[in-house]
Amino acid sequence: MDIVAVDIGATWVRMALVRDGVIEGLKRERNPGTEEGLARVLSSLARELAVGRGEVGSVGVASIGPLDLQKGYIVGSPNIKSHIIRLSTLLKRLFPRSRVAIANDAVAAAWGEYLLGVRAGTPDLGYITMSTGVGGGFVVGGRLLLGSRGNAHEVGHMVVDMWWEGGRCGCGGVGHWEAIAGGRWIPRTSQVLARGWRGAETRLYRAALEGRVGSAKEVFDAAAGGDDFALHVVDYVARASAAGIASAKAAYDVDVVIIGGSVYLNNRRLLKPLIEKHLEAYSPFSSKIDVVDASFGENEGIMGAYAIAYRKPEDLPLF
Ligand SMILES: [Zn+2]
Predict the structure, then answer these.
(1) Quick one: 34 and 137 in the same domain?
(2) Which of 22, 68, 150, 160 could tie 243 with a disulfide, CB 3.0–4.6 Å?
(3) If you measure from the C-alpha of residue 159 to the centroid of ligand 1, how many angstroms do you get, rounded to a whole number?
(4) pLDDT digit string (tens) for 135-146?
(5) What distance in angstroms lies between residue 158's CA and the mean position of ligand 1's atoms?
(6) Is residue 216 part of a domain?
(7) pLDDT top residue among 37 and 285
(8) Is 183 a member of any domain?
């Protein structure tokens, strides 16, 4: 059966036609950030993929949050201009005869991993995305955890650093995992760490001290080139992430944690060994966590969207 999978990110909207778990066609356009604009983009993507009225069995949507899951709306996302985007309404207008399933992107990705990923069938698994922000989804005892409004596990807002003096998270909290290790905050993290750095005065150190670090990529590139201070920043990001993963493990008792998201996947060689090293301290042998790379790379959202439409998780409303 053909399923249309939609991945709504802050920057890109991607739509794919998926047949038996295989992506047959995929198109993307920039997310205009308004409800009207998104309606236009969705219908243009459907036209490009030549999918539409009555031709597909079901539609799965993996979206940035926060979501009102019962209504299928994005509500009050800091990354989008419109306060409310009525996703369910837009999709039903486009596919009136299809069933539409909508979930938070990281939550959908966890379900995609559970059904189709490298560790498919593991009854207790977590999916963590390290991207612009940090998020996650969890399957416990074979059930996808949703929470009443669809934002059950905002793991990026767990406190991983009680002494953090680097400024607040986007949500207003202090010491949050996302505020230290989220891609948009890594330049700030480098500035904060520069103030206490006693090592060599490297290029990235001077840039950080003067507030000239413009992106997470700059930090990771410098670290890959052997810049001692950049390696220190990357180690701190990995350490915060290990603390978050260990806490998630303690809360959900998962056996496997799968990590995806562009910040992680683009810098896996640097991050993975460091995360594993710090996990040895935070989550010792008795509760060892298996850390696994995401199965679908940049298509994690699309495969998650496919998965929730292919086999609807219990408790997820359909439109
Ligand atoms: Zn937060």
Answers:
(1) no
(2) 160
(3) 8
(4) 999 999 999 998
(5) 7
(6) yes
(7) 37
(8) yes
Same domain, yes or no, for 208 and 79? no
CATH of residue 283's domain is 3.30.420.40
**Domain containing 68: what range?**
2-111+299-310
Q: What share of the chain is helix, strand, coil (3-state, %, to 5)?
A: 40, 20, 35
Task: Write the pLDDT tens digit of every residue in 167-215.
Answer: 999 889 999 999 999 999 999 999 999 999 999 999 999 999 999 999 9
Using the mean position of ligand 1's atoms as its centre, give its distance from the Cα of residue 146 in Å.
Answer: 19
The CA-based angle 230-193-291, given to 5 degrees, is 60
169 Cα: distance to centroid of ligand 1 (angstroms) = 5
Count of alpha carbons within 13 angstroms of residue 252, beta-carbon side: 30
Across 57-75, b (16+ Cβ under 10 Å) vs e yields ebbbbbbbbbbbbebbbbb
Radius of gyration of the chain (CA): 20
Task: Identify whether 159 is part of a domain.
Answer: yes
Ligand 1 mean position to 172 CA, how many Å? 6
User: Is residue 54 in some structural domain?
Assistant: yes
**Who surrounds ion ligand 1 at CB < 5 A?**
157, 169, 171, 173, 176
**Residue 116 alpha carbon to ligand 1 centre in Å:** 30
Q: Give me the number of domains the chain comprises.
A: 2
Q: Rounded to whole angstroms, how far apart are CA atoms 198 and 230? A: 13
Cα(282) to centroid of ligand 1, in Å? Answer: 21
Write the ipTM: 0.99
